[in-house]
C-alpha cells in the first residue's frame, strides 16, 4: 500500500533528478560534491529513501538551485520553506531598499535600473529616461518589462543602431537564465521576444569584440553604453536573490559629455 510519505519521497525525488540533469551532473558527481554515496542519491531520486530537511538543503546548495526553487523543493518534501520572501517596502528590507536607492542616485547621470527575476523594472534613476524616450505609453505601464521595452518595435528598438547585436546579446542572456533556473515565465518571454523583428547577431560573430555595447540614437547624437550587472552577495531572502541592478556606463567621451550636460541643464 502506497503511503503519503512514499508519494512525497517520489515527488521530491523527481525534482532532485530534474535539477541534477539540468546541471548536467551524474549521480556520482553529485554524490562526490555532497559527500554522500551515489547509492543514496539514487534512492532519494527514486523515492526509496525519504530525504531530511538538512539533506535537501545540502543538495540544493551543491546543485546551485535558486532560493525560490529550494523552498519549492522543501515543500515537495513536506517541510516548511527555509528562505523568506519580502517586498522591498517591508520593514526587514529597509537596508536593502536604502542601498538600492543610494546606488541608483550615485550612478546618475548615467542610467541604471533594478529588475526582478522576470526582468520587470523594480526601480530606476531619472537618467533612464534617455533610453526610454519615444517608447509607446503602454510599454511604460507597470510592470515594465525591460527586455520587452528594449526589443519591441514600439519600444527602444527603432532607436538602437546595433539592434541585431543587442538582440543577440539579450536573447543569449535570457536563454542562459532559463537553463539555470528552468523558469517557465522566462520561456514565455523568450518566445515573445524571438518573434520581434530586428535580426540576431551573436557576440561570437563579432571579431575582436570584448563586450557588446548599446548604441542608441538620442536626438541628433549617437550614444554608446557598456552595461554591467550587480547582484547582492550571499542573499538569504528570495526577493533579494532575484534582484539585479543593470548599470549603463558611457562607452565614449561624447556619451559622457551629453549625459553630464543634460543634468547640468535641468
From TrEMBL:
SMART domains xrefs: HTH_XRE
Domain HTH cro/C1-type: 16-70
Pfam families: HTH_3, MLTR_LBD
A single MF term (Gene Ontology): DNA binding
InterPro entries with a match to the protein in the record: Cro/C1-type_HTH, Lambda_DNA-bd_dom_sf, MLTR_LBD
Listed name of the protein: Helix-turn-helix transcriptional regulator
